[in-house]
């Protein structure tokens, strides 16, 4: 089963969100890297996942989305860069069957730019940083290019149709995502 999640960056003055379609079997660890791609960040800071409301369960990096998100009331908060406290609300929009000719994960809609990794809310409120961006399609396209790369180099089975030599070349790419150990 596939999920479409709305991921909204909270408290930045304008709507900044991404609609991401991904497998419900995705781990929270993989979701972290998907979100890094979706918000154009580089995994330089710690992150956490937690339930938006008090909950008896805790979330672990190895947990699967489907075990914790089953309806719109199951909201998850992803916090990145604890110093700046970039909080994102993650809400299930819909569940659906995967299409054979579609590569997942993918961004289907996006609104406005995310702040650069080390910017602050003050940069937004004082006008140093403007997150408004009219071409949502361009944002989604850029995110999908990054997600395609991430899919090949770090998530799941990667792209179909590549032979072993092509996989080796992709795996040896020096720009490949690496876990820097900064996760909480």
TrEMBL record:
<dbReference type="InterPro" id="IPR024047">
    <property type="entry name" value="MM3350-like_sf"/>
</dbReference>
<dbReference type="Pfam" id="PF07929">
    <property type="entry name" value="PRiA4_ORF3"/>
</dbReference>
<protein>
    <submittedName>
        <fullName>PRiA4b ORF-3-like protein</fullName>
    </submittedName>
</protein>
<feature type="domain" description="Plasmid pRiA4b Orf3-like">
    <location>
        <begin position="2"/>
        <end position="120"/>
    </location>
</feature>
<dbReference type="InterPro" id="IPR012912">
    <property type="entry name" value="Plasmid_pRiA4b_Orf3-like"/>
</dbReference>
């Amino acid at each position: 089963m596939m999920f479409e999640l709305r991921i909204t960056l909270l408290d930045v003055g304008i709507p900044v969100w991404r609609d991401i379609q991904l497998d419900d079997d995705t781990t929270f660890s993989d979701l972290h890297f998907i979100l890094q791609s979706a918000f154009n960040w580089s995994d330089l800071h710690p992150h956490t996942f937690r339930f938006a409301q008090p909950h008896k369960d805790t979330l672990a990096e190895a947990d699967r989305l489907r075990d914790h998100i089953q309806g719109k009331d199951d909201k998850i908060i992803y916090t990145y860069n604890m110093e700046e406290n970039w909080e994102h609300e993650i809400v299930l929009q819909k569940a659906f069957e995967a299409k054979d000719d579609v590569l997942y994960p993918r961004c289907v809609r996006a609104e406005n730019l995310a702040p650069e990794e080390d910017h602050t809310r003050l940069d937004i409120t004082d006008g140093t940083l403007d997150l408004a961006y009219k071409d949502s399609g361009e944002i989604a396209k850029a995110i999908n290019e990054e997600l395609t790369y991430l899919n090949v180099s770090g998530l799941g089975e990667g792209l179909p149709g590549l032979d072993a030599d092509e996989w080796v070349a992709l795996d040896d790419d020096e720009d490949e995502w690496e876990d820097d150990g900064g996760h909480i």
